Amino acid sequence: MKKEIYLAGGCFWGVERYFSLINGVTATQVGYANGQGPAPTYEEVCTGTAGFAETVQVIYEPRKAPLPFLLRLYLASIDPTSVNRQGHDQGIQYRTGIYYTDPADRAVALQALEREQAHHDRPLAVEVLPLGNFYPAEEYHQRYLVKNPNGYCHLDPGLFDQARQAKPTPDERWPLPSREELARRLTPQQYAVTQEQGTEPPFRNPYWEEERPGIYVDVTTGRPLFLSAHKFPSSCGWPSFSRPLDAALVEERTDRSHGMVRTEVLAAHSHAHLGHLFADGPKELGGRRYCINSAALRFIPREEMEDAGYGDLLPLVEGRAGTTQNQTH
User: Fold this and answer.
1) Active-site residue flag, 11
2) What is the rounded CA–CA span in Å between residue 1 and residue 14?
3) Catalytic: which of 11, 46, 153, 236?
4) Cβ neighbours of residue 66 closer than 8 Å, sequence gap 6 or more
5) Averaged over 67-75, what is the pLDDT?
6) pLDDT score at 314
7) DSSP E strands: which ranges in 10-111?
8) How confident is the model over 236-285, as pLDDT tens digits?
9) Does the model's pTM come out above 0.85?
10) Of the candidates 319, 314, 318, which has an alpha carbon nearest to the alpha carbon of residue 327?
11) Residue 255 contacts by C-beta under 8 Å, 6 or more apart in sequence?
12) If phi over 0 gives left and psi between -120 and 50 gives alpha, with beta otherwise, what is residue 139?
């Protein structure tokens, strides 16, 4: 699945080049957005009378380049407090803006600006609006800095190296959804288990007998939690693991429900209920049994991990890495 976002950040020659270098961005195009009138020329845009902004269309793969990550890089490339000016370029066509086609992206953009505002004494001047219109610029503007490596660019050249090397943080890669979003996206059973501490029926769940190599991720966020290598056969009727992918990815707390005293296991990031921890696991594996509801997990087979955006974790599944530290949190 691919998505799009439209970003105005001054002269679009440099902005387009900058975003084209980011892993997970599959296509870029420069153009004129959110003005009045049909298909303007560059000369008409430069007059400022029609109100168009030089804008870059960014097509991206959310699993590799999630929107919070792209917006962090965008804000790092502009002066977000400058009104109608970036670098030496001045005029309404050089204003900064985030223009979205998916209404859900508005909240993501506003959250990014709220975080950014904490670093500035002056108010931000970045507008967040639905995309009203977008007209591709003339062909000579497209990939201008590829065609003209020494051409004008208002961006610091060091930003291009940063773009090539940039990676999303775990929180950007696996953001927390709202309860409303979870209610829309999850099945009733998944919601009951993860949000209401429910339990699915034993023996009648999809991962109890799953034996393929792969990873198990939090169904609410997609953050990896368990490896197939740590899963072992159990007669309990639920998936059983000797340990999580990393101890910091889960949290434990005392559960006194149903007249019992048990150790509840939750996803540390999302606080989704996963299951319970027992001390009756195989001794040779450490003696612990993480008894986890299938409904709290999504299994991604090894052969699908690259396409699903988990290619960096393949060495863990294939036994080529001895530690998971700093790879998932």
Assistant:
1) yes
2) 27
3) 11
4) 168, 172, 173, 175
5) 97
6) 95
7) 25-33, 53-60, 85-86, 89-90, 96-100
8) 999 999 999 999 999 999 999 889 999 999 999 999 999 999 999 999 99
9) no
10) 314
11) 261, 262, 263, 264, 276
12) alpha
Residue 95 has pLDDT above 70, yes or no: yes
Tell me the two tokens of residue 67.
Answer: 């929107």
What is the rounded distance in angstroms from the CA atom of residue 329 to the CA atom of residue 315? 17
CA distances from 197 to 98, 249, 260, 264, 274 (A): 39, 18, 15, 9, 8
The first and second tokens of residue 285, run together, are: 């594996």
Both tokens of 104, joined, read 């859900």
Counted residue by residue, the chain has a size of 329
Is residue 328 pLDDT above 60, yes or no? no
pLDDT tens per residue, range 21-53:
999 999 999 999 999 999 999 999 999 999 999
Residue 253, Cβ density class (10 Å: 0-12 exposed, 13-18 middle, ≥19 buried):
exposed
Among the listed residues 227, 240, 247, the one whose alpha carbon sits nearest the alpha carbon of residue 316: 227
How many whole angstroms separate alpha carbon 11 and alpha carbon 9?
7
Strand blocks (E) in the chain: 3-9, 25-33, 53-60, 85-86, 89-90, 96-100, 127-130, 134-136, 214-218, 224-227, 240-241, 250-255, 262-267, 273-278, 289-292, 297-301
Lowest-confidence region among 37-51, 113-127, 173-187, 222-236: 173-187
- pLDDT category at 177 given cuts 50, 70, 90 is confident
Closest by Cα among 196, 319, 313 to 249: 313
Q: List the structure tokens of 9.
A: 């950040």
For the record, the structure tokens of 94 come out as: 């050089």
DSSP tag of 110: H
Read off the pLDDT of residues 138-170 as tens digits, 9 standing for 90 and up: 999 999 999 999 999 999 999 999 999 999 999
Amino acid type, 125: A
- Is 153 an annotated catalytic residue? no
- Return the half-sphere exposure (C-beta side, CA atoms, 13 A cut-off) of residue 312: 16
